[in-house]
Task: structure prediction
Amino acid sequence: MNTLTPREIVRELDRYIIGQDAAKRAVAVALRNRYRRAMLPDDIREEVTPKNILMMGPTGVGKTEIARRLARLVDAPFVKVEATKFTEVGYVGRDVDSIIRDLLEASIRMVKEQHAERVKGQALQSAEDRLVDLIVKPVKKSNPIDILLGNKPKEPDATQEEKQNTRMRRDEVRRALQAGEMEHALVEVEVEESTPRSEIPGTDMNMNDMLGSILPKKTKLRKVEVTEARRILAAEEEQNMIDMDSVYSEAIKKAEQDGIVFLDEIDKVAGKSQGHGPDVSREGVQRDILPIVEGSTVPTKYGPVKTDHVLFIAAGAFHVSKVSDLIPELQGRFPVRVSLKPLTKEDYRRILIQPENALIRQYQALLKVDNVNLIFDESALDAIAEHAWRANESSENIGARRLHTVLEAILNDIAFNAGGGDAADVDVNVDANYVKNQLTDDYKEQDLHRYIL
Result:
């Protein structure tokens, strides 16, 4: 269990998300409460339920990013779903139980990666042994009928001299592999053919999994370089060394105790149903979501998953509907409510340069590949922030995503003309005049808005 204090969690979130201090404090406290709950005696621990959070704010202000960064911070299983994807039982669409099945799949991937890391060294050694065998004695394609009947073709016994030559050859190949002298040599590897998943609607059962124990696995020979063959064989060895039953049980526990579900667009299923048309299943979706949020047991093909201690973070713009339009039972399951503020000009400017994954740094790194040194002066940053803010105020407010649109328009010519052969390093300075010239059409459109009554 992660032992970060709420103040430390907020500091970590500040590295990637600008502003929204109230929302950061709320999720930090919710996360710390998990650690506090884990320290409680057994008799009271089960009684302490997570305090689910409801975020209210316009799109593009950081709701999803806060939840995603929070999950990464504590290495917790995380799934983001849109409430609008679900429809009431009896209508065509996804059932809400798939939220928990998706969460468990994310948990399984996470736990499996941890187990694979533990056996990585041993798997690489086994893969190297198999690689030596493939080079010294190439694999032959097996007959499917022999595989089905369990027949193995007998090979003549090797003489003592042949065994000695084989050992010497194996030692030579192993030395060459360890020295990196055969990385581009071609070898034939027998790999399992991937078949498309055909799931039974409304469940997480797979027809291929059901028939897998009856039918033999289809394989094919692939001719690949030693580098790729080593990766394929290492992955197979890792799979063989991992105890999947242990992975499944650990993943279920991790999903139950540490799982975070982000329910986006919750406001789109709010509002009273009119009894016809697309609104007919709105309240039904809320009632279907309610048992999962309250705490229930969802059956999956890996085992039952309890949702009593999963942390649910719901979010919505609520610019048409209100929180009070949700059914009272669902409202009561989100006791912590925070409002996220619309972004200001200063926020847009900080988003451009301040976070560790700042947009300006991303574009500078991209164009550096083509030997273009992109330099933004202060006036350019002010102009970009000003334009993004004005565009959001005068048309649809899409928040920080507007910066992507603005930067793409500004850097379109530079990105198009960059690259080609052994071009020398070139410095490109972007200032306010350049920004305004590239956004001329947008500025003209903005100037016309004042004349519209």
In short: The radius of gyration is 29 Å. The first helix runs from residue 6 to 14. Residues 356 and 362 are 10 Å apart (CA to CA). DSSP finds 19 helices and eleven strands in the chain.
